[in-house]
Amino acid sequence: MTEEVKSENVNETVEEESADVKENKGMAILAYIIFFIPLITSKDSKFAMYHANQGLVLFLFGVSVSVIGTIVPLIGWLLILPLGTLCWFIFVILGIINAANGKQKQLPLIGKISLLK
């Protein structure tokens, strides 16, 4: 009988998370385009905040690639800037796909960084 209660609690938790995912899927997708809008509108959603964090880290990655690629002559212009921009674009697409599918999957290389609580 104790096992049944535990399994019921697990199912309730899953249903609550799926409700959060359903309600905030659009905000999670938007986090990869304009990361600060989910920060303002969906503070209570763990799902939207996770993707807002990923979007913020991705934004900072893009800014750093752009700055470093512009400052470093020749190698930056011919190697860092094009490859970094391509990598950034792929990460944006992966993040949007994960958010649209309702997954909290980390982005490659930069996904472990957590700037928001």
What are its keywords?
disordered N terminus; 74% helix; mainly alpha; 4 helices
Overview of the molecule:
It contains four helices and no strands. It has helices spanning 2-30, 36-41, 46-71, 75-100. It is 74% helix and 0% strand. The model is unreliable at 1-15 (pLDDT under 50). The chain has one domain (2-100). The termini are far apart. The chain is mainly alpha-helical. The radius of gyration is 18 Å and the shape is elongated.
Task: Give me a quick take on this structure.
The chain is mainly alpha-helical and 117 residues long. It is built from four helices and no strands. InterPro entries: MamF_MmsF.
User: Kindly state the mean pLDDT as a whole number?
Assistant: 87
Report the C-alpha radius of gyration, rounded.
18 Å
Q: Tell me how many strands there are.
A: 0
In helices, the fraction of residues equals over 70%
Number of domains: 1
Secondary-structure-based class equals: mainly alpha
State the low-pLDDT regions, or none: 1-15
Could you tell me how far the N terminus lies from the C terminus, measured between alpha carbons in angstroms?
37 Å
Envelope shape:
elongated
Sheet with the most strands?
none
| Order of H and E elements | HHHH
Total of helices: 4
Measured by DSSP, the beta-strand proportion falls in under 5%
Indicate the topology.
Layout: H1 2-30, H2 36-41, H3 46-71, H4 75-100
Helix pairs in contact: 1-3, 1-4, 3-4
Keywords: Membrane, Transmembrane, Transmembrane helix
Subcellular location: Membrane
Pfam family, one: MamF_MmsF
